[in-house]
Amino acid sequence: MFVRLVNISLRGVTLLSKFFLIFLLARFLEPKDVALYGLMAATIGYSLFALGFDFYTYSTRELLATERKHWAGLLRDQGCFFGIVYLVVLPALSLIFIFGLLPLSMAPWFFILVVLEHLAQELNRLLVAMSRQLLASIVLFLRSGLWAALVVVIFWVSEDLRQLDLVFAGWSLGVAAACLLGASALFRLHGGSLKRNIDWSWIRKGIKVALPLLIATLAIRGVFTLDRYWVQAVANVDVLAAYVLFAGVANAVMSFLDAGVFVFLYPKLISAYHQADRTAFNNGFRQLFIQTLAVTITLSGLAAILIFPLLEWLNRPAYSNNLAVLYWLLLAIFLYAMSMVPHYGMYAMSSDRPIIVSHIMALVIFVILAYWLTGWSSQYGVPLALCGAFLGILIYKTIAYLKLKGRQHWLLAESLVST
Q1: Which superkingdom (predicted)?
Q2: What is the per-residue pLDDT for 409?
Q3: How many domains is the chain partitioned into structurally?
Q4: Domain membership of residue 400 as a residue range
Q5: Residues 113, 172 contacting (CB under 8 angstroms)
Q6: For residue 166, what are the CA distances in angstroms to 147, 208, 230?
Q7: Residues 172 and 241 occupy one common structural domain
Q8: Residue 257: per-residue pLDDT
Q9: Is residue 203 part of a domain?
Q10: 241 and 193 share a domain?
Q11: How far apart are CA 49 and CA 115, in angstroms?
């Protein structure tokens, strides 16, 4: 409990730092700069999935099902795969600037950050798989929290340094420090498996497993990226800036769930399933549902209440005039968060097909609803489309999980015993 408390506290400080950063940007920068920061952050976040190829969805399960003395070799093989992906994907990402989705002046920061963020993300996932949650939280704090807190202080005390370049410089230094600390954990792994040759068959198998999941991830994360570009296309810069600000508030709820709930419970679900531990699986899933529901409702309620003094402090009509956008975004995040409960249940049982279908379905629903609803309201069309898309995947994943669980005879037996 002590370790978990420290872990959650570190991640809480990280989220608060990012939270204060976005609000300080809204206070001291023009809405167009806040909008550009939001587009940059969303595009970097989306590009990470192309770089990572969602290979972790395969490698994490492989690591957890393998003796730790063989981990070094598996991670070496995974690193070779990532090197190949980098050679293909990084040049392709230049299309972002060729087509003018982001200004060319942002290109150096973009490529620095997308590489460092990907490395830090993979290290975080590895530390979670190694049950090094505390170190993972410290790495996350360096990656997302400490630098943001320092930028907040600098913005507050120095008017001359209130520029986006300072934000991106601090971001780069923070992620670089996180990579160095996270990589230190690799030196403790047993190196005997490094003597064997690279297992290309393992990599090919991972590609076959990860590719459909990558398509699904690009679809669902595409929703979280396309929404900002859609708002940019149909609304003015004030609405986009407000959307970026309020999306940051809503996404903080999801970030806290990832840090304080999912990261602790989904590895236990995987282990319980592989060990055929019926009681542990059912208890873990029940905890996942209760904690997700409680945390989401609590944080969404706090966000809805605390936004009023924050908007008064900002004193910018661009945000206060679009306050209702926040409430729709909080509803969307609530629906998305609850859909992650059956999602992790199916992921633990290695059932990826319903996850893939639901994520592609979410993108299709979002595009259809956004096209239709933004014709009615440029201000609320996109957040309403998000709600529709996430409601759709919540219903689909819930039905799919219940059907899948019914086919797991040892889980069904446990359910009958408990009733």
Answers
A1: Bacteria
A2: 62
A3: 2
A4: 208-419
A5: yes
A6: 10, 41, 27
A7: no
A8: 86
A9: no
A10: no
A11: 11
In terms of Cα–Cα distance, which of 409, 324, 73, 356 is closest to 215? 356
What does the pLDDT look like over 345-395, one tens digit per residue? 998 887 888 988 999 999 999 999 999 999 888 889 999 999 999 999 999
Q: What is the DSSP letter of 143?
A: I
Asked if residue 225 and residue 83 are part of one domain, the reply reads: no
Euclidean distance between CA atoms 143 and 77, whole angstroms: 25
Q: How many CB atoms lie within 10 A of CB 276?
A: 11
- In the chain, the amino acid numbered 240 is L
pTM listed for this prediction: 0.83
Residue type (1 letter), 147: W
- Rg of the chain taking only CA atoms, in angstroms: 21
Structure tokens at 30: 């023009």
Query: Among the three residues 145, 163, 198, which one is the final residue of a domain in this structure?
Result: 198
Query: Which structure tokens are listed for 355?
Result: 């996850």
CA distance 215 to 221: 10
Q: The tokens of 370 are what?
A: 């956004």
Q: Which two tokens stand for residue 332?
A: 């969307």
CA 48/CA 118 separation, integer angstroms = 6
- Among 93, 109, 112, which Cα is nearest to 101's? 93
Q: Are 246 and 86 in contact (CB under 8 A)?
A: no
Residue 10 is assigned to a structural domain of this protein:
yes
Give the pair of three-digit tokens for residue 56: 């972790």
Contact 219, 277 (CB under 8 A): no
Closest to 297 measured CA to CA, from 258, 262, 339, 253 = 253
Residue with tokens 């190949």: 84
289-327 as b/e: b if 16+ CB within 10 A = eebbeebbeebbeebeeebeebbeebebebbeebeebbb
CA distances from 112 to 161, 171, 264, 319 (A): 21, 10, 30, 31
Residue 105: its pLDDT value, please?
Answer: 94
Cα-to-chain-centroid distance, residue 143: 14
Sequence-distant (6+) residues with CB within 8 A of 180 are none
Nearest alpha-carbon partner for 255 in 401, 390, 137: 137
- 146: tokens are 């400490």
